[in-house]
Amino acid sequence: MTKVNITIGACRLYAQVTVKKRKKYMVDLEIKTDCEHIERMAEEIGPNPINGLEEFRTIFRSKVYQAADKTIPHPICTVPAGVLKAIEAELELALPRDSTIKFIK
Q1: How far apart are CA 98 and CA 102, in angstroms?
Q2: Of 24, 23, 41, nearest to 32 (Cα)?
């Protein structure tokens, strides 16, 4: 099981993403959040399991990014990327490493 915590940009809301591999590339995805847009995104992604490998074909065919496009009004929200990072780590397609965006003053 892979779990990530995401602080959502300037709005300072929160999301916790849990991904659990079932078999091959199929994963169960759970998103807990205090953001109504992310809640809608999770509903839009649909029922479990999802094919995690399909999420990495192209960004435009990703169920996560398609759902985000329909539900999240702010296009630079970091949650969709965090969801894909968690899926990628759970499927052992990449090491579970933190990602950071920091502004330099």
Answers
A1: 13
A2: 41
Instruction: Report CA-CA distances (Å) from 70 to 16, 37, 66, 78.
Output: 20, 9, 7, 15
**Residues 43-68: tens digit of each pLDDT:** 999 899 999 999 998 888 999 999 99
| Residue 57, both tokens | 């074909």
Domains in the chain, CATH or no CATH each: 2-90 (3.90.1010)
What pTM was computed for the model? Answer: 0.93
How far is 44 from 38, CA to CA, in rounded Å?
Answer: 10
For residue 11, give the nearest of 42, 43, 37 by alpha carbon: 37
